Amino acid sequence: xxxxxxxxxxxxNICRSPSAEAVFTALVEKAGLTDKIECDSAGTAxxxxxxxxxxxxxxxxxxxxxxxxxxxxxxxxxxxFDRFDYIIGMDDQNVWDLKCQAxxxxxxxxxxxxxxxxxEGDYDSVPDPYYGGEAGFEMVLDILxxxxxxxxxxxxxxx
Length: 159
Prior knowledge:
This protein is α/β, with parallel strands linked by helices.
């Protein structure tokens, strides 16, 4: 059986999407589903291609037991729409950018917003913590832990 593929997308792929990748990977491992699900992350812009995750985001993630090991890369519509089953933007702008690159209806059906899977709180997006303070990084992780758990629960129904 082919593994389900999930791609998390934010603007620069150095804060939110690599964190979503790490949180979701940890949940998939804990659930014993690594043989059924795998994930990656990307950015709608290539500003930081090849760079590791933001050091501040890494520090906050490590405190919760997550290791952000991926390297930033730009979303590649021609490749990523074909490879991934779920393409998940962190905010409305990311989702819009992804939809603008969709080639057809089949691509559009793969696009979601991260908070579509949240079960707690009243968040309409995962805010970009890049220009904010420490609390912003913690809020991102809070939202991602909730939304990634919701995503995994939804995916379990289709495995």
